[in-house]
Write a structure and sequence with these properties.
The protein folds into 2 domains: 1-334, ANL, N-terminal domain (Rossmann fold); 342-438, ANL, C-terminal domain (GMP Synthetase, Chain A, domain 3, 2-Layer Sandwich). The strands form 4 sheets. The protein has an 11-stranded mixed β-sheet with strand order 4-3-5-6-7-8-9-13-12-11-10. It has a 4-stranded mixed β-sheet with strand order 18-17-16-19. A two-stranded antiparallel ribbon has the order 1-2. It has helices at residues 12-15, 19-40, 42-51, 72-78, 116-132, 156-162, 174-184, 193-205, 230-240, 351-359, 395-410; strands spanning 96-101, 111-115, 140-143, 165-167, 188-191, 218-221, 243-248, 258-259, 267-269, 274-279, 293-299, 310-319, 331-337, 342-344, 347-349, 364-375, 378-387, 416-421, 436-438. It is an alpha/beta fold. The chain is 28% helix and 23% strand. The termini are far apart.
Length: 446
């Protein structure tokens, strides 16, 4: 394929471009996409006019701050209006070759359209991430992600374009997937963090040792935060004897917009495609790089449906300092979802912090469920866990250990820690696991 297999870069010129030059290219693309959106997407024409801004106002990258935000509600409100693809779409339907949809977990599912150029650039980025984690043409790769309208489904094409032997696993039942892993001996698999953990557990219970009987060297995880939680990542690595790399994607943009490198210090984001801002979750004030807030993305090259200042709902920060791997594109660090965060005794609590504690403790399975509720007019949370079958400690002892560990890590104790036997929680899933139940809108007795 004419590519140096020993190079750690898919596109060295792009990936190691000095920030000044990278930002120069970003500004050129930003001017073009804002103008294109204004002239071709009815929503942006109306929105920019109402805000008193115009494409010509973009002189520097910071000038994007003059333009209004959009969010998931904007997508839902404009979808299907004026045309099948809605008022955010900037191309005629005949130019669209692919659409994915969101899961709809926080509302009505939203469509994400792609032109042929959008799609090809999307897959080139996926090839870049696969190469970044060490995939090469000699690898056998299992793509164990949902292909049903999910934006991560087509990412397997990025692996094929790289030259790997690809097995389109999709949502195979665990028993069938383990058969594939044992029979075909693939070296790399992509799934969710919770399912990677559960699949390893199921392998052991069926008499398959992932470390000895399988040939998985690298595991890519996405769709949940676990891959960026050190304790969760290490637990999966120890179970499989494989390296775990976290990927981050948005149905609103494309499958994986960011990915870990060998340094595993955040996820490099494709800054040639995405302009990143961080804003205060309450005021929308733009924060400096390194400060924690809501991540806001502007697509620089996606023409089917440009996203100008899209509030992702993800809480995190961006690090633009040089990475030890040599890549210059910034690294995002995700703390959690704005929708999942809750406040207890004036402390911001993210489920990721609770997971980090649970996955780092011995004597429990690592499965957990969080309940958020109101009592005495204040927000409380409880945690349900599973005790290992060979743990000799009483439920009361385990409950106290977990409660104390959560207090030490988060700063506020849970209202209660409920201990179940191994397998007693209904949290295991073939894909994303439901781990939070918010009961604050329900009636309760004071």
């Amino acid at each position: 394929m004419g590519r140096d297999l020993n190079s750690k870069f898919w596109n060295e010129e792009l990936e190691t471009m000095p920030r000044g030059e990278l930002e120069k290219h970003q500004l050129e693309d930003l001017k073009e996409i804002v103008k294109f959106a204004y002239e071709n997407a009815p929503y942006y024409k109306r929105s920019f006019d109402e805000a008193g801004v115009k494409p010509e106002d973009i002189k520097t990258l910071k000038d994007i701050q003059k333009f209004p935000f959009i969010d998931k509600k904007t997508q839902r409100d404009t979808q299907g209006k004026g045309s099948f693809l809605g008022e955010l779409c900037a191309v005629p339907e005949e130019d669209v070759v692919f659409i994915s949809t969101s899961s709809g977990s926080t509302g009505v599912p939203t469509m994400s359209p792609f032109t042929k150029k959008d799609f090809d650039e999307f897959q080139d980025t996926e090839s870049r991430w696969f190469w970044q984690i060490g995939m090469r043409p000699k690898d056998r790769y299992v793509h164990a992600l949902n292909f049903s309208l999910y934006v991560g489904g087509p990412d397997v094409i990025g692996a094929q374009n790289l030259g790997a032997l690809c097995i389109w696993g999709g949502t195979l039942p665990s028993e069938r997937l383990l058969f594939v892993l044992k029979t075909y001996q693939p070296t790399i698999i992509w799934t969710s963090p919770s399912y990677a953990w559960q699949l390893g557990e199921k392998a052991l219970k069926s008499g398959i040792d992932p470390k000895k009987d399988l040939n998985i060297k690298k595991i890519i995880v996405a769709g949940e935060l676990g891959g960026s939680i050190d304790a969760t990542r290490k637990a999966i690595e120890d179970l499989w004897g494989a390296e775990v790399y976290d990927f981050y994607g948005l149905s609103d943009i494309f499958g994986a917009c960011a990915a870990m490198c060998e340094a595993k210090d955040g996820l490099h984001i494709a800054e040639n495609h995405i302009l990143v801002e961080t804003v205060d979750i309450h005021t929308g004030e733009v924060l400096e790089p390194g400060q924690v807030g809501e991540l806001v993305f502007t697509t620089l090259r996606k023409h089917a449906r440009p996203l100008i200042r899209f509030r992702t709902g993800d809480i995190g920060w961006i690090d633009n300092t040089p990475c030890s791997c040599g890549r210059t594109h910034g690294r995002i660090h995700i703390s959690g979802r704005k929708d999942d965060m809750f406040i207890v005794s004036a402390v911001n609590v993210f489920p990721s912090d609770i997971e980090a504690v649970i996955r780092d403790m011995s004597g429990i399975t690592g499965e957990y469920l969080i309940r958020v509720f109101e009592k005495d007019f204040t927000c409380k949370y409880s945690v349900e866990i599973e005790k290992n079958s060979d743990n000799p400690k009483s439920d009361e002892e385990v409950s106290k250990e977990v409660s104390d560990a959560l207090k030490a890590r988060i700063g506020v104790k849970p209202y209660s820690v409920v201990v179940h036997p191994d397998g007693g929680l209904d949290t295991r899933s073939e894909h994303k696991s439901r781990r939070i139940i918010d009961e604050r809108k329900l009636d309760y007795v004071i």
